[in-house]
Amino acid sequence: MARPHLRDLPPLVVPNGFMIRTWRDGDESAWGAIMDPPGAIPVAGGWTPMAVRARHVEHPSFRPGWTFLAVQGTDPDAPPVAAASAWREVDAQPGHGAIHMVAALPEWRGKGLGRAVTLAAMHALAARGDVAATLKTDDWRIAAIRTYLGLGFLPVWRPGGERDPEDHRDRWSAVMQACHSRQPRTEAPP
């Protein structure tokens, strides 16, 4: 998905009872737990603290001030329950940032936290001078896609990519129908 510009971003409004802070050393376990539950972002072997360090913290795009964590209450030491990062893909055009690794613990989904951390990351992209943003998602993550559409992201498919462009068009058509239905699909397909 892509947001062709970062002008006129909505103000960051954090849901009542939560605050957003940025990454700090020691967040590896909590961040890994956010990424590991069903419907989040799986990796082989799971998001252990070592995997978080290797795949996220040590990545050239990682900056502590660009990873946003939602915590309950006003204590920044409370365990994070949702996360998103502002990123720069290796092959990105200058001025094109990415929203990376958006997820929330299952018991905290549906409370607007994904939107809040995503918007915090979008504001970070704009503040560092990026003019557009992209993100990658799975087509079964209907609630997340609704959020991204509401934040101005648009579907993108690239002819000649991994998948047949016709298949990609059909899949986006199904996603858009699901996004507009009253019965959201919230589980990963079997």
Uncertain stretches of 5 or more adjacent residues:
184-190
Largest beta-sheet details: 6 strands, mixed
Order of strands side by side in the largest beta sheet?
Answer: 1-6-5-4-3-2
- Listing every helix as H and every strand as E from the N terminus to the C terminus, the arrangement reads EEHHEEEHEHH
Rg for CA atoms: 16 Å
Shape summary: globular
* Percent of sequence in beta strands: 15-25%
Number of strands: 6
Distance between the termini: 24 Å
How many helices does DSSP assign? 5
How would you state the average pLDDT, rounded? 85
> What is the helix fraction of residues, given as a range?
25-40%
Query: Structural class of the secondary elements?
Result: alpha+beta
Mind explaining what this structure looks like?
The chain has 190 residues and is of the alpha+beta class. Helix content is 30%, strand content 18%. The protein is built from 5 helices and 6 strands. It has helices at 28-35, 49-57, 113-127, 142-150, 165-180, and strands spanning 2-3, 18-22, 67-72, 80-87, 96-104, 132-135. Strands 1-6-5-4-3-2 form a 6-stranded mixed β-sheet, with helices on both faces. A hairpin with an 8-residue loop joins strand 4 (80-87) and strand 5 (96-104). It is globular and about 40 Å long. The model is unreliable at 184-190 (pLDDT under 50).
